[in-house]
Amino acid sequence: MEKFSIKKFLDSGSLFIWLCGGALGLSLLMIGGLLVLILINGMGYFWPKDLLQLTLNDGSAVLGEWVATETIPNSESSAKPKGHERIQLKVGNRDLYGLDFRWVDRADIVNEQYPWDVVVFERREWGKFFGRIKQIEEGEMSLASGNEEGMSILFPLLERTNGIQERIDAIEKEEIGELNHRLEQTRLQLRSLEMSGQPGSGERAAIEAQVQALEARYEVQNIALIALYDELKRFRMTVVDVAGEAQTFPVGTLMNAWLPNSLGIGEKLLMYVQNFWEVLSEEPREANTEGGIFPAIFGTVMMVVIMSIAVVPFGVLAALYLKEYATQGVVTQMIRIAVNNLAGVPSIVFGVFGLGFFIYAVGGTLDQLFFAEALPNPTFGTGGILWASLTLALMTVPVVIVATEEGLSAVPREYREGSLALGATKLESLWRVVLPCAMPGILTGLILAVSRATGEVAPLMLTGVVKLAPSLPVDGFFPFLHLDRKFMHLGFHIFDVGFQSPNVEAAKPMVYVTTFILVLVVLMLNMAAIALRTRMRKRYAGSSV
Amino acid sequence: MQITANSATSGTSAIPKERMRRSMLVVEKMTNTSERRNQEHMESTSRPLADAHPKIVIQDMNFFYGKVQALTKVNMPIPANQVTAFIGPSGCGKSTLLRCLNRLNDLVDGTRIEGKILLEGNDIYDPGVDVTDLRTRVGMVFQKVNPFPKSIWQNVAYGPQLRNVKKRATLDDLVEKSLQGAGLWEEVKDRLHGSALGLSGGQQQRLCIARALAVNPDVLLMDEPCSALDPISTGRIEELLYTLKEQLTVVIVTHNMQQAARVSDLTGFFLLGELIEYDDTKTIFTNPSDRRTEDYITGRFG
Question: Which residue of A216, A240, A418, B259 has the fewest CB atoms within a 10 Å radius of its CB?
Answer without folding.
Answer: A216
